[in-house]
Specification:
Elements (H helix, E strand, L loop, with lengths): L3 H6 L7 E2 L2 E2 L1 E2 L10 H13 L10 H21 L7 E4 L2 H16 L5 E5 L4 H14 L2 E5 L9 H6 L5 E7 L11 H10 L4 E4 L11 H4 L3 E5 L10 E5 L1 H6 L10 E4 L4 E3 L13 H17 L1 H19 L5 E4 L8 E6 L4 H10 L2 E2 L1 E3 L4 H7 L4 E5 L6 H17 L1
Parallel strand pairs: 3-15, 5-6, 5-7, 7-8, 8-9
Antiparallel strand pairs: 1-2, 4-10, 9-10, 11-12, 13-14, 14-17, 16-17
Helix pairs in contact: 2-10, 3-10, 4-5, 11-14
Bound molecules: 4'-deoxy-4'-aminopyridoxal-5'-phosphate (PMP).
């Protein structure tokens, strides 16, 4: 039984009001709200355990280290990695992708080598490669998509050449909600001997992810989008790949020994974790993953699927409604425009009704260019959203439309 009332009680912020109206929070694609247990994990650790990890012989340092490393195991289990050596803690998806782009391009790519990305990528899957392109002369190739927002798989297969070194593709689009067939895309890349980095920022909060089943070589996600704290994220990498790649940043923690003549690097995963990690954040992230696991990722996916179906059908009844993203496999993100109402006006007026949505290009300007628009209004649902909230959204859109 999916007990939505009980679930909502875990999130104190959901019962606040804005402008005297009950909050309807539909900006989960940007960040999710935090259950009480996550916030308490943060305060509890600061109040009763706090000490820097890995370096201390004293009791608190050892306890903090145990919590931090237990969190790595929780992440490993959550995405079904083989080993905790494959779990690198970062600041989030963006840092995970920058780490990989920098380290991979430096060691595996030369001028003229190619990376394949897709039309719908988030800027964080594009710009790190452009930085590498400017530095090393690598080439970016782009998978096109159809008008429903599905990547063209035949065109994808045509993009491979002997110069292709990596594919970087998002699991779920933060704008269209498209669930890309990454398992099949990975198999295709592997048939060409090419590894794949999957941006899982928008999949991990909404569905069960198994990196071994996908056979992903690298997989990135952010804690704050999966009910965890801000400032902590994960880069998963197959151990045989991470072993081969050079460190991203230098400093404490990532070394074995340092002299002015020669420095040797620490073993995995520490080789990629220079400096004091956000050990409070990793504990809280593990709490968030335990929280969603206890509800059940399949139950969450089913609940959100029902909400999305309901919202799609409800919003389509609104006059002048244009929905962007009608892929067959769609996650709980709906981007839209109504008539010629500017997305910013719609978002601002919905906000006055207590409804939090996102407006703009959603860090996907190349996708906006493909769609021939500047931006959209985006409603994105999480595990605590309800059909009543979708009714409030639909009524709000209708009210704003009548004003124009
Ligand atoms: N990729 C996708 C698909 C996203 O939706 C986001 C966040 N909007 C990111 C990457 C970047 O995540 P973060 O800002 O947490 O690093």
């Amino acid at each position: 039984m999916y007990n939505i009332e009980l679930i909502r009680e875990d999130f104190p912020i959901l019962s606040r009001e804005v402008y005297g109206k009950p909050l309807v929070y539909l900006d989960n694609g940007a960040t999710t709200q935090k259950p009480r247990c996550v916030v308490e994990a943060i305060t509890n650790e600061y109040y009763s355990v706090n000490a820097n990890v890995h370096r201390g012989v004293h009791f608190l340092s050892q306890q903090a280290t145990e919590l931090h490393e237990a969190s790595r195991e929780t992440v490993r289990r959550f995405i079904n990695a083989r080993s905790t050596n494959e779990i690198i803690f970062t600041r989030g998806t963006t840092e995970s992708i920058n780490l990989l782009a920098s380290s991979f391009a430096e060691s595996q790519m030369q001028a003229g080598d190619e990376v394949i990305v897709s039309t719908m990528e988030h800027h964080s899957d594009i710009v790190p490669w452009q930085l590498q392109a400017a530095k090393r002369g690598i080439v970016i190739k782009v998978i096109p998509m159809n008008d429903k927002g599905e990547l063209l798989q035949d065109a994808y297969k045509q993009l491979f050449s002997e110069k292709t070194k990596l594919v970087c593709v998002m699991h779920v689009s933060n704008v269209l909600g498209t669930v890309n067939p990454v398992k099949e895309m990975i198999a295709e890349a592997h048939a060409h001997g090419v590894p794949v980095l999957v941006d899982g920022a928008q999949s991990v909060p909404h569905m069960k992810v198994d990196v071994q089943d996908l056979d992903a070589d690298f997989f990135a996600f952010s804690g704050h989008k999966v009910y965890g704290p801000t400032g902590v994220g994960v880069l998963y990498g197959k151990e045989e790949w991470l072993d081969k790649l050079p460190p991203y940043q230098g400093g404490g923690e990532m070394i074995q020994s340092v002299s002015f003549e020669k420095t040797t690097f620490n073993e995995l995963p520490f080789k990629f974790e220079a400096g004091t990690p956000d050990y409070i954040g990793t504990t809280a992230l593990a709490k968030a993953l335990d929280y969603v696991t206890a509800i059940g990722m399949d139950q969450i996916a089913a609940h959100e699927h029902e909400l999305t179906q309901y919202a799609m059908q409800r919003l389509k009844q609104i006059e002048g409604m244009r929905i962007f993203g009608e892929a067959e496999h769609k996650s709980s993100v709906i981007s839209f425009l109504v008539g010629n109402i500017h997305h910013l006006d719609m978002g601002t007026l919905l906000d006055r009704l207590g409804i939090a949505v996102r407006t703009g290009h959603h860090c996907a300007q190349p996708l906006m260019q493909r769609l021939g628009i500047e931006g959209t209004v985006r409603a994105s649902f999480g595990l605590y959203n309800t059909k009543e909230e979708i009714d409030i959204l639909a009524a709000g859109i209708e009210r704003v439309s009548r004003m124009f």
